[in-house]
Amino acid sequence: MKGENAALGAAGLAAFLALGEAVPRLGLVKEEYFPPASRIADALGTEAADGAFWTALGDTLTGWALGLALAVVAGIAVGVLLAVVPYLREATASTIEFLRPIPSVALIPLAVLLYGTELRSVLLLVVYASFWQVLIQVLYGVQDVDPVAEETARSYGLGTWARIRHVLWPTALPYVMTGVRLAAAVALILAITAELVIGAPGLGARIAVAQTSQAVPEMYALIVVAGLLGLLINVGARSVERRALAWHQSVRGEVAV
Questions:
Q1: Residue 173 CB: number of other CB atoms within 10 A?
Q2: Using CA atoms, how far apart are residues 215 and 232, in angstroms rounded to an integer?
Q3: pLDDT at 257
Q4: H or E segment and range at residue 227
Q5: In angstroms, rounded to a whole number, what is the distance separating the alpha carbons of residues 180 and 155?
Q6: Which candidate, 200, 205, 202, places its Cα nearest to that of 112?
Q7: What is the pLDDT of residues 236-247, one digit of tens each?
Q8: To 5 degrees, how large is the angle CA 229–CA 234–CA 235?
Q9: Residue 6: which pLDDT band, with cuts at 50, 70 and 90?
């Protein structure tokens, strides 16, 4: 089954590349707006030979990784705190529902005022967007805790931290891993968006420079790199999720199939 899926995926990619080559060659779109896939591949090779490209890639990955790590730690900590202090959860419910829908890009003016084009501007946007992905999933996981198991743990005299470790955490972990996987993708989107709009160093800034200088093949090559990064991050997050939840029924069932 995995071999068939891989073959189908490769066939789909080949068809997409062939379409990307044929559409501009046939004159369906102007090459200056959408160059053939071969020209984009050549531009990608040129970018890969440029040391500044790898520096920009490192800047993007740094903002992504730091922002994601901060968001995951903060989301889990706040989620667990709200779980063990019910009154605090009720007191903050309306605040969470007010802040969560605010688009992170709306904070770009604030980030620029506070930090200019520094890495901290990127981190502000990445952490804000990714934090909610983790926090909401943690809260969902807490709500899924079996009340019978919770009362049993209390009756056996387990303290707060013991209940968190043996009752709350195993139940919430699948939700946490889902939140981390979603947050990883959101963090990359916001990191590149911040670089593109604010001008912070990274792939986004290089895309903006290529666009303003009419280097269209290079612009598309950088966009392809951003897409490949997203793919690798998603695959990596799913791999970590399967390893962390190897004991869980959903993963065991997936492996068995």
A1: 17
A2: 26
A3: 43
A4: helix 216-244
A5: 33
A6: 200
A7: 988 888 888 876
A8: 100
A9: low
Q: Which of 165, 177, 167 is nearest to 144 (CA)?
A: 167
At 164, list the tokens. 């968190």
pLDDT band (50, 70, 90) for residue 12: confident
CA distance 238 to 138: 18
All residues at 6 or more sequence positions from 60 whose CB lies less than 8 Å from its CB, including other chains: 188, 191, 192, 195, 202, 203, 204, 229
Distance of alpha carbon 153 from alpha carbon 85, whole angstroms: 17
Percent helix, strand, coil in the chain, to 5, is: 85, 0, 15
Residue 27, CB half-sphere, CA atoms under 13 Å: how many? 0
Rounded to whole angstroms, how far apart are CA atoms 28 and 129? 38
Q: How far apart are CA 163 and CA 152, in angstroms?
A: 10
Give this prediction's pTM.
Answer: 0.85
- CA-derived radius of gyration, the chain: 22
CA distance 147 to 153: 10
Give dist(CA 167, CA 83) in Å, integer: 12
Tokens of 107: 């904070």
C-alpha 28, offset from chain centre: 34
Instruction: Judge whether 216 and 33 are in contact, CB under 8 Å.
Output: yes
Query: What region, left, alpha or beta, does residue 145 occupy, with left being phi > 0 and alpha being psi -120 to 50 degrees?
Result: beta
pLDDT, one tens digit per residue, over 198-210 is: 988 999 999 999 9
Please check the confidence at residue 79 and state whether its pLDDT lies above 70: yes
In eight-state DSSP terms, residue 106 is: G
Query: What tens digit of pLDDT does each residue of 94-120 get?
Result: 888 888 888 888 899 999 888 888 889
What is the secondary structure of 18-81 as a DSSP string? HHHHHHHHTTSS-TTTS--HHHHHHHHHHHHT-HHHHHHHHHHHHHHHHHHHHHHHHHHHHHHH
